[in-house]
């Protein structure tokens, strides 16, 4: 902590981060232990966060992230999209295929930014807002590879015909970006994605990750 920072705000943000990292919630005692402060301080932090709907407590007294964070989260996608667009545009133009940024939304993969190449005669139509299961399509599979630590090939995932007949996809996960699970990929009308395109996708994923750090 420095003279320019607020200890109370810092503790409140740490509470939110702790709650975001658990599916079953935390008790006041558990939060007190994790924060290294007494229970009275934790009670005050939770009461303040509850006023803003950022935290809720169930009947058993366990604290969980509240629905108020959704209102804040709605503003995240536009910021992420804006940061990713330069790399996506370059990727689409370089390989002549539709490029996309996909983020995890619950148990699904959600395309939040899509860029189509300007010089090709035809390309796969893909739209922002498209959803699909994480275990189908290159974008979701790349995210799952990152979760499982299977990164010997930078997490590159290659698929064919899983989401659209005749289309092949390649995607690589965003690595080293705190609080964001996602991938950058391309989709094209081809029997397979060649090695050069795969390498360019991995490079674009690194560029986007760097822009988001």
UniProtKB/TrEMBL annotation:
<keyword id="KW-0804">Transcription</keyword>
<feature type="domain" description="HTH iclR-type">
    <location>
        <begin position="6"/>
        <end position="67"/>
    </location>
</feature>
<keyword id="KW-0805">Transcription regulation</keyword>
<feature type="domain" description="IclR-ED">
    <location>
        <begin position="68"/>
        <end position="213"/>
    </location>
</feature>
<dbReference type="InterPro" id="IPR036390">
    <property type="entry name" value="WH_DNA-bd_sf"/>
</dbReference>
<dbReference type="Pfam" id="PF01614">
    <property type="entry name" value="IclR_C"/>
</dbReference>
<dbReference type="InterPro" id="IPR005471">
    <property type="entry name" value="Tscrpt_reg_IclR_N"/>
</dbReference>
<dbReference type="InterPro" id="IPR036388">
    <property type="entry name" value="WH-like_DNA-bd_sf"/>
</dbReference>
<dbReference type="InterPro" id="IPR014757">
    <property type="entry name" value="Tscrpt_reg_IclR_C"/>
</dbReference>
<dbReference type="InterPro" id="IPR029016">
    <property type="entry name" value="GAF-like_dom_sf"/>
</dbReference>
<keyword id="KW-0238">DNA-binding</keyword>
<dbReference type="Pfam" id="PF09339">
    <property type="entry name" value="HTH_IclR"/>
</dbReference>
<dbReference type="InterPro" id="IPR050707">
    <property type="entry name" value="HTH_MetabolicPath_Reg"/>
</dbReference>
<protein>
    <submittedName>
        <fullName>Transcriptional regulator</fullName>
    </submittedName>
</protein>
């Amino acid at each position: 902590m420095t003279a320019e920072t607020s200890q109370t705000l810092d503790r409140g943000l740490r509470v939110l981060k702790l709650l975001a990292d658990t599916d079953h919630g935390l008790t006041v005692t558990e939060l007190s232990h994790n924060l290294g402060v007494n229970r009275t301080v934790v009670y005050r932090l939770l009461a303040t966060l509850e006023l803003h709907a950022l935290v809720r407590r169930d009947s058993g007294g366990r604290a969980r992230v509240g629905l108020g964070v959704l209102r804040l989260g709605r503003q995240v996608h536009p910021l992420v999209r804006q940061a990713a667009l330069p790399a996506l545009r370059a990727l689409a133009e370089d390989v002549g295929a539709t490029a996309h940024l996909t983020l995890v939304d619950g148990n699904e993969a959600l395309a939040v930014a899509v860029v189509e190449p300007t010089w090709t005669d035809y390309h796969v139509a893909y739209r922002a807002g498209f959803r699909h299961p994480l275990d189908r399509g290159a974008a979701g599979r790349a995210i799952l590879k990152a979760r499982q630590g299977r990164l010997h090939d930078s997490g590159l995932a290659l698929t064919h015909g899983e989401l659209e007949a005749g289309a092949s996809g390649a995607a690589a996960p965003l690595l080293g970006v705190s609080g964001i699970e996602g991938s950058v990929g391309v989709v094209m009308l081809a029997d397979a994605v060649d090695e050069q395109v795969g390498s360019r996708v991995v490079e674009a994923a690194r560029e986007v990750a760097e822009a988001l750090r």
